[in-house]
């Protein structure tokens, strides 16, 4: 069973933000912003590549609710899903980082020069 499946089954403890039958949101153990929450489907999908469209629709509604619960829906926030090797995905159970609580940085994502690609 993967790390986040163990968190869903409560085999590994986590700090709950919101939960329903299909989705779970909990505080990231190593926050990179004042608010840093992970939202996941309880069912295991390796990454965003694998989630069916109907489940993704419900996932989006759940994340809208989580942002409201966190009180960041009006101040603004970012949703990030790291996918695969280049995406820097460490946990192979689809998760969305919901980060906010302060003005977020925005910058270059790669050392490679974007001009070399177009
Ligand atoms: P990613 O690099 O997108 O796969 O992100 C994995 C995230 O999971 C990182 O931000 C970690 O800090 C977080 N993480 C790892 N283990 C735990 C845990 N036991 N509880 C909460 N967050 C975790
Ligand atoms: Zn899993």
Based on CA atoms alone, the radius of gyration comes out at: 15 Å
Q: Tell me the major beta sheet.
A: 5 strands, antiparallel
- The dominant shape is globular
Give the uncertain stretches in residue-range form.
Answer: none
Structural class: alpha+beta
What share of residues is helical? 10-25%
Q: Return the average pLDDT rounded to an integer.
A: 97
Number of strands: 5
Reported by name, the CATH topology is HIT family, subunit A
- List the ions, cofactors and other small molecules found in this model: adenosine monophosphate, zinc ion
What is the H level of CATH, i.e. the homologous superfamily?
HIT-like
Strand order in the sheet with the most strands = 1-2-3-5-4
Count of individual domains = 1
Per CATH, the class reads Alpha Beta
Give the ordered list of helices and strands. Answer: HEEEHEHE
The number of helical segments is 3
Amino- and carboxy-terminal Cα gap: 42 Å
Please give the CATH architecture.
2-Layer Sandwich
β content, as a range? 15-25%
Defining key terms:
3 helices, 118 residues, HIT family, subunit A, five-stranded antiparallel beta sheet, alpha+beta, binds adenosine monophosphate, binds zinc ion
